[in-house]
Specification:
It is a single chain. By secondary structure, this protein is of the alpha+beta class. It has five domains: 10-110, PAS domain (Beta-Lactamase, 2-Layer Sandwich), CATH 3.30.450; 134-238, Beta-Lactamase; 271-443, P-loop containing nucleotide triphosphate hydrolases (Rossmann fold); 453-615, Orthogonal Bundle (Helicase, Ruva Protein, domain 3), CATH 1.10.8; 623-673. The chain is built from 25 helices and 19 strands. The strands form five sheets. It has a five-stranded antiparallel sheet. The protein has a five-stranded antiparallel sheet with strand order 7-6-10-9-8. Helix 24 packs across helix 25 (664-673). The chain is elongated.
């Protein structure tokens, strides 16, 4: 072989090839084999020169001969020799128009497979990147180092209103010619100059969409900018998502309100009835406090409003529901025993103590709830010890030197004004603040007349079932009950309903309620009492005047039937009267006290109910009962028509309640009553 230059020969060039190379003459004998061929077949240098090519690779003999004779190349010949699979390309060597030999190039099959796999991997990666680029919901575009736009995805077309055909291939400085101003692409120049990500807000002139744009530079190994990748996000889409989120939140709140209405129905099993907005709000807050496991809750309200029921509700709705609920009435236990009941005592702590000691109620409430009723009556000495437990969560029994760690929720209740007690130095201010982390006030029954109807029906159903009775009540009697002040609140109403079911002989309890309320409730127009017989006082005081004491005195004279004797006018003479039995006097005094209390609340609350009618005859009773039955049936039928019409316009309990201007609980109960559904 002749050298091609002073340093590089033709053999050096062929040896540098990654393919095996054989050169044969016109007879098919090997003239040359390169280094790669030696490596393929493990040959020594020049070992095959002069041998027929068929001796090395039998499959090449006929093919190479045909190539030389025909002068046509053979490409992609697959062959196998000496355990090596390869692909051969045979090309004729033409000299002066005549084939004088052939050049054979071989590539091992496994090398081809590696190349194919690499190529396929690149193809897949390219397809993946292309799919991501085209499928992105953000507008994507790529600019090379020369400032030419090389890619523009479909989302960019939709956001900007410019197609890829209009943009790709143009310099970003030339985009002003088609409507994209330079200020809208200034962040691209900044990204190239500063070599950092630059963000901007744009409004595209063609689509009029506001977008958040980002330009991010991509660097080579020398930290030179290769490309700038742009990203644009449509803010109008974000605004749409925000509106959808707001709608979803509203729907969630609506569902929560409906669930709250259903939860209030579940509370009926615990004898907790609520129809008034004030009471519903109290129950909702109580359930919320229970869910977050709040402690140190103070429940306030008049006696008989249901503070104990509310405390049990908080316990039952909390995560501590499976643990003990311990309650103690601080006013019902003597002061000298209250400390031992609360904190317990050790053996021999005091005279009369149990031989084995006793755990206190706080210990028994471990992991549960301790309900301290009438907390305002707790002695000052014990208030200090209770405060120490609230601070340290440790209890030390009487006579013990070892403290016990106790974890329990504290719920307290009172019908007194604790703030006033604090000012009077009868209740510790620091204890008040510790117990009053969360306060729930139960309004008195006279302030939530809406609950009276449901409470009466609930108690009547309860006691009718318990005592196997079928007592009923009319709407007129409900109005009478709603006009009464109920100083004893729910407890008084419950007792009154129980007495009516047990004591009344009539199916309708209207007469019983009217008679018993007249005993404890003043008549509507408290008339001026007639002056006692023989009295010189011709102007008796009138109810409601400023001289209330004189009026009460005159009323006492009347009901106690005091009759002064004719000689009473004489100085120093004792009045002569006919005394009543002591029991009757006490009854009159109690009735008067109730009347005065009820009249005070009646005047504060508004007009009182009309005066009771005289008792009807038996025939009138029967006619009235029949009229009430017919009226009730007619009202039920009309009510069903109203609810049936409303269900055609409403889809949820909340919508139905708003449509009929009632509460969700009432709407749900009425649907069940009439066998209707949404």
């Amino acid at each position: 072989m002749k050298p091609t230059s002073d340093k590089i020969e033709l053999a050096d060039i062929l040896d540098a090839s990654t393919n095996g190379v054989l050169v044969v003459d016109s007879r098919g004998c090997i003239l040359y084999e390169n280094r790669q061929m030696h490596d393929y077949y493990r040959l020594e240098r020049g070992a095959c020169v002069g041998l027929p090519v068929g001796d090395l690779i039998p499959q090449l003999e006929a093919t190479s001969t045909n190539c030389i004779r025909s002068g046509e190349a053979h490409i992609g010949l697959q062959l196998e020799a000496n355990g090596i699979a390869a692909v051969a390309n045979i090309s004729p060597i033409i000299k002066q128009g005549e084939a004088v030999g052939a050049s054979i190039s071989l590539k091992r099959m496994d090398e081809y497979e590696q190349l194919a796999e690499t190529l396929e991997s690149y193809k897949k990666q390219n397809k993946l990147l292309q799919a991501i680029f085209n499928a992105s919901t953000d507008g994507l575009w790529i600019i090379d180092a020369k400032g030419t736009v090389v890619a523009w995805n479909p989302a960019a077309e939709a956001i900007t209103g410019f197609t890829a055909d209009e943009i790709v291939g143009k310099q970003y400085d030339e985009l002003a010619a088609i409507g994209i101003e330079k200020k809208d692409v200034r962040h691209i120049r900044e990204a190239v100059e500063t070599k950092r990500r630059v963000s901007t807000f744009n409004i595209h002139p063609r689509s009029h969409k506001q977008v958040l744009g980002n330009a991010t530079p991509v660097f080579d190994d020398s930290e030179n900018v290769l490309w700038v990748v742009g990203n644009e996000h449509d803010l109008s889409e974000l605004n749409g998502l925000k509106e959808e989120l707001d709608d979803a939140l509203k729907a969630t709140e609506k569902a929560k309100a409906e669930l709250a209405g259903l939860n209030l129905l579940e509370l009926r099993d615990q004898e907790i009835i609520a129809e008034s907005k004030a009471m519903i709000q109290v129950l909702q807050v109580a359930v919320k406090l229970a869910k977050i496991e709040a402690s140190h809750i103070l429940i306030t309200g008049e006696s008989g409003t249901g503070k104990g029921f509310l405390a049990k509700l908080i316990h039952n709705k909390s995560a501590r529901a499976s643990q003990p609920f311990i309650q103690i009435n601080c006013a019902a236990v003597p002061e000298n025993l209250l400390e031992a009941e609360l904190f317990g005592y050790e053996k021999g702590a005091f005279t009369g103590a149990r031989d084995r000691g006793k755990a206190g109620l706080i210990e028994l409430a471990q992991n549960g709830t301790l309900f301290l009723d009438e907390i305002g009556d707790m002695p000052m000495r014990l208030q200090a010890k209770l405060l120490k437990y609230l601070d340290d969560h440790e209890v030390m029994r009487l006579g013990s030197i070892k403290a016990r760690k106790i974890d329990c929720a504290i719920v307290s209740a009172t019908n007194q004004n604790l703030e006033a007690l604090v000012e009077e130095k009868r209740f510790r201010q620091d204890l008040f603040f510790r117990l009053n982390n969360f306060q729930l006030h139960i309004p008195p029954l006279r302030e939530r007349a809406e609950d009276i109807l449901e409470l009466v029906h609930f108690f009547l159903r309860k006691y009718n079932k318990q005592y196997k009775r079928r007592k009923r009540i009319s709407a007129k009697a409900i109005e009478t009950l709603q006009a009464y002040a109920f100083p004893g609140n729910v407890r008084e109403l419950q007792s009154l309903c129980k007495q009516a079911v047990l004591m009344s002989d009539d199916t309708f309890l209207d007469g019983y309620f009217a008679d018993n309320l007249q005993i404890v409730c003043a008549p509507v127009g408290l008339s001026q009492p007639e002056p006692p017989a023989g009295s010189d006082n011709t102007e008796a005081p009138v109810a409601g005047t400023s001289d209330a004491a004189a009026w009460i005195a005159a009323w006492l004279v009347k009901i106690l039937n005091i009759r002064p004797s004719p000689g009473a006018a004489k100085p120093g003479a004792e009045p002569d009267f006919e005394p009543l039995p002591l029991t009757q006097i006490l009854q009159h005094v109690v009735a008067l006290g109730r009347m005065i209390y009820s009249e005070t609340h009646r005047q504060n609350a508004g007009p009182a109910p009309p005066p009771a009618s005289p008792p009807p005859s038996e025939q009138e009773d029967e006619d009235t009962a029949e009229a009430v039955v017919n009226l009730t049936a007619a009202l039920d039928a009309r009510e069903r028509e109203i609810f049936l019409h409303a269900t055609q316009h409403c889809r949820t309990i909340r919508e139905l309640a708003e449509y009929l201007q009632t509460s969700p609980a009432t709407a749900l109960r009425k649907l069940k009553k009439h066998g209707l559904s949404l």
